[in-house]
Design goal:
The complex is a heterodimer of chains A (about 250) and B (about 400). Chain A has about 250 residues and is of the alpha/beta class. Chain A contains eleven helices and ten strands. Chain A has a six-stranded mixed β-sheet, sandwiched between helices. Chain A has a four-stranded antiparallel β-sheet with strand order 2-1-4-5, covered by helices on one side. In chain A, a hairpin with a 2-residue loop joins strand 1 and strand 2. In chain A, helix 4 runs parallel beside helix 7. The longest helix of chain A is centred in the C-terminal third of the chain and has 14 residues. Chain A is globular, with a radius of gyration of 18 Å. Chain A starts with a helix and ends with a helix. The N terminus of chain A is likely disordered. Chain B is mostly helical and about 400 residues long. Chain B folds into two domains: about 80 residues, no CATH class; about 300 residues, no CATH class. Chain B has 18 helices and two strands. In chain B, strands 1-2 form a two-stranded antiparallel sheet. In chain B, a hairpin with a 2-residue loop joins strand 1 and strand 2. In chain B, helix 3 packs across helix 10, helix 4 packs antiparallel against helix 6 and helix 9 runs antiparallel to helix 12. Classes of the chains: A alpha/beta (about 250), B mainly alpha (about 400). At the A-B interface, helix 3, helix 4, helix 5 and helix 6 of A face helix 1, helix 10, helix 11 and helix 12 of B.
């Protein structure tokens, strides 16, 4: 804990969450949580179902309002900002179930996520120029969807939908990327591809991932935070966390 | 690679079928004026004023998923603004000399008003009126939009609230008889800047002005639907949260499209007043507002042209039907709505795309097959004539899934 307190100078941290609490009708889904993410770090949050993992992401991206505590992203207090302002500040978030626009093509899905023309006037005058097309192509290639570009998004497989949503975040070029169970429902091969993808994209940004698949966690994590009943149970390298008796008891044990 | 993208086949990027707009223009500007007497043409003109509302609903409801059951409010406000101007012109001191207070509208005199209320004063001015026809409904829509959408009121709740607003406004208009003409509305309108709008020639001209404005709104809506904002509306309809977390202020887009719908409805309302010669609360309330949604649904709520055809057909049906069985019309209308929603969710436009368009394409392709010299592609020459036709038919069937223009 003393180690954590030293870190509150928040100099090297992209994200510092302190004393974060949210209570739903008295039930504290997240309870006095502190969390610090460094630049270019891949941090994985694990924990049993209902531990509050998704809620933590909801709080950071502004979907849920915190009861108490602070969330600082590059020295900016996020708890007071609206969702779209948090996105503009550089935070991108992927939802637990793939959240894409199924009536639009893959190309259009990526285009909507392209960070230009984000107000009414901008959207009315938006031009699909070379710069936009090149970026969409580049991202489509990264997320393995080049040959699906003109398919309607609802024709994609589950795994491809997950990739598309990751692509939609990448095209925003966020400094903090938050992914909620990105490999859920993916085949083994797809998981491997996704792990490589995450490793390649973290060169310019920090990533906060929620995941259940332990193999996948070992593959990608710099550090792991174990959440239990809204509190941090353990934190550190995967090796350390795996051998922590508290963790074994509540989570890995059964 | 990039050239492939610029020719993106995705629905919203497919080229506009301009011939469909041309066809509508020919029907409205040539066929109907030649085929119908002025009485019936004026009736068509009246129906077309509802089409303005239906076009707005295509954007709000069809694309954006915002179902407003109160569009009659904006139609009515636009219509009333125009009617106030016309009424003041009709109430000059000479024409109203027998009143106890000459120079004010007759219904005010009947309600013992002795001077023109302050909010009527500016409607002496034509330029103010033309501005107010658009501005009053749009500002009202903006206030409703800000109040609802920034609080994230949507879906059924929004529909019910807009319906309540329509009901309240009707009650208000009926209740404030001295200021609004009450349940009879503002009637006995005669001239527009000295030009008698009741003559045949005036009605012809107003009909053509109406069609021109309708096309202006159609093209504006087409532009909105096909630009990025149109795709954003579809995205919001499907996954509002995803749009929000892609950095968009969702409420501002909803407010915008709601205001556009209000502006279209207002133009329709003003043209209604000019062509029909009166405005009354019966075009403001719940029933007309719901009827307008039905016009849009019958036409196909994603299709701008469908909205125009749907409005015309339902109104023609209404006129002929209610002449013979007036008491049954409401039931027929309800049945029509349920039928369309359950069986043909894409309305007339959907039927066209599933049944007529493939047939057209089939026909056109057969022409082309017959015309092209068979030399360059040897494979095709050897295939029997039937096959390309069959394959083109199946491919056009696939295309028919596309969202209508
Ligand atoms: N909006 C909410 N209202 C009430 N309870 C909620 C809400 N969001 C989450 N919870 C509760 O908070 C707890 C943590 O949920 P969640 O963060 O989804 O867990 P997980 O770690 O599985 O992602 C659960 O018990 C859930 O029921
Ligand atoms: Mg979860």
């Amino acid at each position: 804990m003393s180690q954590l307190n030293q870190k509150t100078s928040d100099k090297d941290f992209v994200l510092s969450v302190e004393g974060l609490t949210v209570s739903f009708d008295g039930f504290k889904a997240v309870d006095d949580l502190s969390l610090y993410v460094e630049e270019q770090e891949i941090r994985v949050i694990i924990g049993p179902n209902g531990a509050g993992k998704t809620t933590v992401l909801d709080l950071i991206c502004g979907r849920t309002k915190a009861t108490e505590g602070s969330i600082k992203f590059k020295k900016k207090e996020l708890t007071r900002l609206k969702e779209h302002q948090i996105v503009h500040a550089g935070v991108g978030r992927k939802f637990q179930t793939p959240s894409i626009y199924e009536d639009l093509s893959v190309f259009e899905n990526l285009e909507i996520s392209y960070p230009r023309g984000r107000n009414v006037w901008g959207a009315l005058t938006f031009k699909r120029d070379q710069q936009v097309q090149d970026k969409i192509l580049e991202i489509a290639e990264m997320v393995f969807l080049t040959d699906k570009l003109h398919d309607q998004a609802d024709l994609l497989s589950h795994g491809q939908k997950q990739w598309l949503e990751i692509g939609m975040l990448l095209i925003q070029d966020p400094e903090l990327l938050m992914l909620d169970e990105p490999v859920a429902g993916m085949s083994v091969a797809e998981r491997k591809q996704t792990a490589e993808l995450l490793q390649s994209i973290t060169k310019q940004r920090s990533v906060l991932v929620i995941e259940h698949d332990m193999q996948f966690v070992e593959d990608i994590a710099d550090r792991v935070t174990v959440l239990h009943q809204g509190k941090v149970l353990s934190e550190g390298s995967m090796q350390r966390v795996k051998n922590d008796p508290k963790v074994i008891e509540v989570y890995l044990g059964h | 690679m990039s050239s492939q993208i610029s020719a993106a086949p995705a629905q919203n990027s497919s080229p506009v079928d301009w011939w469909k707009y041309l066809l509508l223009a020919v029907i409205l500007l040539v066929v109907l004026p030649l085929a119908l007497d002025i009485f019936r043409l004026n009736l068509i003109g009246k129906y077309l004023t509802y089409a303005f509302v239906a076009i707005g609903l295509v954007l709000c409801w069809g694309c954006g998923g915002i179902l407003s059951l109160g569009q009659g409010v904006f139609f009515g406000l636009g219509g009333y603004c125009m009617a106030m101007f016309l009424k003041l012109e009709a109430s000059n001191p000479e024409a109203t000399a027998i009143q106890s207070t000459p120079g004010i509208p007759d219904f005010m005199d009947w309600n013992q008003l002795t001077e023109l209320p302050w909010f009527w004063q500016p409607f002496h001015s034509l330029s103010f009126t033309l501005l107010a026809v658009i501005a009053v409904p749009v500002i009202f829509a903006f206030i409703i939009g800000v109040a609802m959408f920034t609080r994230r009121v949507g879906g059924v709740y929004f529909a019910i609230i807009t319906q309540a607003i329509a009901a309240i406004l009707t009650i208000l208009i009926i209740g404030q008889q001295g200021y609004t003409g009450g349940v009879n509305g503002i009637t006995d309108l005669r001239t527009f800047v000295g030009w008698d709008i009741r003559t045949e020639s005036a009605q012809y001209l107003l009909y053509f002005v109406n069609v021109a404005l309708l096309f202006a709104c159609l093209f504006a809506a087409l532009y909105i639907k096909r630009c990025k904002l149109g795709r954003l509306l579809v995205a919001m309809r499907e996954k509002e949260d995803r749009v929000r977390f892609s950095g968009y202020n969702v409420a501002s887009f909803k407010i915008f499209v709601f205001c556009i719908g209000a502006a279209f409805a207002a133009i329709g309302g003003a043209m209604f007043t000019l062509q029909v010669g009166f405005m009354s609360p019966s075009f403001v309330g719940i029933v007309p507002s719901i009827e307008m949604v039905i016009f849009c649904a019958v036409g196909g709520r994603l299709s701008l042209l469908g909205a125009v055809y749907g409005t015309l057909l339902v109104n023609l049906a209404k006129t002929s039907f209610s002449e013979s069985f007036p008491e049954l019309w409401l039931f027929a209308m309800g049945a029509l709505f349920i039928g369309v929603v359950l069986a043909f969710p894409d309305g007339l436009a959907g039927l066209y795309q599933t049944y007529i368009q493939p047939w057209f394409k089939h026909f056109i392709n057969r022409e082309k097959v017959g015309l092209t010299p068979p030399a360059p592609i040897p494979e095709k020459t050897t295939t029997p004539a039937k096959e390309p036709v069959a394959s083109s038919l199946s491919s056009s069937l696939e295309e028919s899934r596309n969202v209508p223009a």
